[in-house]
Amino acid sequence: MKPDMKKIKREFFQKSALKVARNMLGKYLVRETSEGKCVLKIVETEAYMGVDDDASHSYRGRLTDRNKVMYENGGVFYIYSIYGIYYCLNVVTNKKNIPQAVFIRAAEPLEGVEILKKNRNMNNFNFLHLANGPSKIAQALGLNKEFYGRSVENNRLYFLEGEKVSSKEIALAPRINIDYAQCAKDYPWRFFIKGNKFISKKQFYSL
DNA sequence: AGCGTGATGGTCT
DNA sequence: GACCATCACGCTA
């Protein structure tokens, strides 16, 4: 990793979630704790487009304690718990009161593997499965609601410029586990790096 | 490889 | 009271 790599600023996220989801591929997600530093390369994302997207938590302007941070100006974290035991990591996008977000689905471990491994506490260790799912990422990085609503411009959880990913390397597909959506169920709002070994497992089913 | 299922509790109506 | 932007494991083959 280049030492001069720049931190990504909030402005990066203040555009359509579709654009941001695509542009987040190849970026590095960095987690720093007293234990050390972990770096993940983002390889799969999903866009949640807000009021017109019936898969989105903010569909038709829905506003609850859980999702209220989606209405903030882009560049803050939206973390929620799911199935009682897991967390999902999103970054709020677009401008204030346009409640969109990018869901980070899968990542490739680049640095801090021992810490990721310890946090994941896997019975059968598999490097490919360290961070190849949204809640695996949260678990591997030791995330909880502590970062709910926090700006991406902080020193504990942030993004770096990472690697350029050309359009040719990117594939689109429907999003995962949104069967409850009627209209948007099959919209190709999932983005991933073609052929990357760390994309989430369900990916392969649809290829 | 693909499908089915249990765990587990916060959130929403 | 039902749902859920998940995961791991076990089964079939």
Strand-helix topology:
Layout: H1 17-24, E1 28-33, E2 36-48, E3 77-82, E4 86-93, E5 100-111, H2 113-120, H3 134-140, E6 157-160, E7 170-173, E8 190-193, H4 202-205
This protein binds a DNA duplex (13 and 13 nucleotides) through strand 3, strand 4, strand 5 and helix 3.
> Largest sheet, if any?
8 strands, antiparallel
Tell me the quaternary state: single chain
- What CATH calls the topology is 3-methyladenine DNA Glycosylase, Chain A
- The tally of domains stands at 1
Give the % helix.
10-25%
CATH architecture: Roll
Q: How far apart, in Å, are the first and last alpha carbons?
A: 31 Å
Structural class by helix and strand composition: alpha+beta
Tally of DSSP β-strands: 8
Rounded average pLDDT: 95
Q: Please work out how many helical segments DSSP would assign.
A: 4
Helix-strand string: HEEEEEHHEEEH
Cα radius of gyration in angstroms:
16 Å
Name the shape in a single word.
globular
Protein model, in words:
It is a single chain. The chain has helices spanning 17-24, 113-120, 134-140, 202-205, and strands spanning 28-33, 36-48, 77-82, 86-93, 100-111, 157-160, 170-173, 190-193. It is α+β, with helices and mostly antiparallel strands and 207 residues long. The chain has one domain (10-205): 3-methyladenine DNA Glycosylase, Chain A (Roll), CATH 3.10.300. Strands 1, 2, 3, 4, 5, 6, 7 and 8 form an eight-stranded antiparallel β-sheet that branches. The protein starts with 16 loop residues before the first helix and ends with a helix. The model has no long low-confidence stretch (mean pLDDT 95). The structure holds a DNA duplex (13 and 13 nucleotides).
